[in-house]
Amino acid sequence: MNLKNKVVWITGASSGIGEAITYALVKEACKLVISARRNEELERVKQNTQLSDDDILMLPIDLENYQDAPKWTKTVIDKFGKIDILINNGGISQESYALETSTEVEQKIMNINYFGNVALAKAVAPIMQEQKSGKIAVTTSIIGKFGLPKLSTYAASKHALYGFYDAFRLELKKDNVSILLVSPGFINTDVTKKAVTGDGSPNNQNSPAQENGMKTDVFAKKFIAALKSNRNHKYIGSKELLTVPFKTFCPNTFYKLMGKMSDKKN
User: Any idea what the Cα angle at residue 244 is, between residues 239 and 249, rounded to 5°?
Assistant: First the structure.
């Protein structure tokens, strides 16, 4: 798939993985729509791309207000007239035990990571059906394949994305609209630092796994390669990706080891 002149909409573009993907797409000569909550950070990313206003739209959105997805989509269409690729990357993480997490925080995580993600895809998909072409790329996580302590609702939201998009992919196939699920392992971002705790306050500290994870520019190159391919799914990370087949083929041993690691952590 040649990305030149494609209109690509990236959510979560103000930092981390989304920011790195944005810069990688500039090298592919795409026309970009960059979205996130923080207007000043989006402006910084926009300036860093050095694209003219003809080739980039800065569109601040809050995925928690997912009922506004059709309005956001109309803004993109009014600007570019089409949407070739949606990169549904925006999200929020968690750092709290299930029994210490309020229902309000659980709802917030699900609203952003699942309902906001899906609402945007459902707003964009009819445009792609009309075009008879398009791709929706979704950032999930290896935590969408198993759960870990302090990540219960985050894991649930990522598990839910797998279920929805595996079904949605088959529904859109006849219209030449494809779906790519990308599952990162440990990537060097502030996702854990920005995670919410049980009462909704920010975690404010990163994990060693994130700090020692794959650099975002390396991730972005691998992501773009997957985007250009006909793949339905791609894991991106390092040795932590081995946990997925390990759980599949040796589930009892997997849970024993995860339990021991959790005990040490606590």
Answer: 120
- For residue 97, list its beta bridge partners: none
Residue 208 CA to residue 212 CA, distance in Å, equals 6
Range 178-190 average pLDDT: 96
Angle between helices 16-26 and 39-49 (to 10 degrees): 30
C-alpha dihedral (155, 161, 162, 165), degrees to nearest 10: 180
- Type of residue found at 245: P
Instruction: Using alpha carbons only, give the angle 8, 216, 128 rounded to the nearest 5 degrees.
Output: 20
- pLDDT of residue 36 exceeding 80, the answer is yes
Would the CA dihedral through 204, 205, 207, 211 be positive or negative?
positive
Does the reported pTM lie above 0.85?
yes
Can you tell me the distance from the alpha carbon of 240 to that of 266, in angstroms, rounded to the nearest whole number?
Answer: 20
Q: pLDDT of 132-175, one tens digit each?
A: 999 999 999 999 999 989 999 999 999 999 999 999 999 999 99
Residue 233 structure tokens? 């799914």
**Catalytic residue positions, numbered:** 154
